[in-house]
Amino acid sequence: MNHALPPQPLPDDVMGEQWQFVTVPAGEVTHLFEHRPIPIQVAPPDRWPLGLGLASTEKVPGLIIQGGRRSRRLAQWVQAQGPIAITAMATDPGGLILEAADDRRWVFATFTDAEVIQSAQMYQMRQRNCKGLHFLLIQPDDLGHTASGFWLLQNTALGSPERTPQ
Question: What is the b/e burial string over 133-164, where b = at least 16 CB atoms within 10 angstroms of the residue's CB?
């Protein structure tokens, strides 16, 4: 990914309310997300964890954003950007960067808390362990009953999108 363009702030009308790092065992990603009625779902077959040859117990990192009433608008906006990856900048201050099509980048969040910085480091390490695979889930609240958008993303700077020969 070319980082020639500086990351831009998210438009105010699509800001989420809360976010959190999460992990899901690779063997459960398909079960949890493949058949859920999620209005925007981008999960190409070559990005499902087991298809990438990941062990079923490998922890796939993800980011969940609770968007509240803006959840659907945020999901539509993310989809329009052509999301490629979510990168965590594990520095002080740190941040979450949406890497998008045409080398555009957007700041999802910033943070200075030492515990969050440590979580960001773990998120990036888990991406490397998963051939760059990670996910973004946008939902209205933390109840998990509904979701507005789900993307299986792959940071190709950390892992190759091609399958390794068996």
Answer: bbbbbbbbeeeeeebbbbbbbbbeebbeeeee
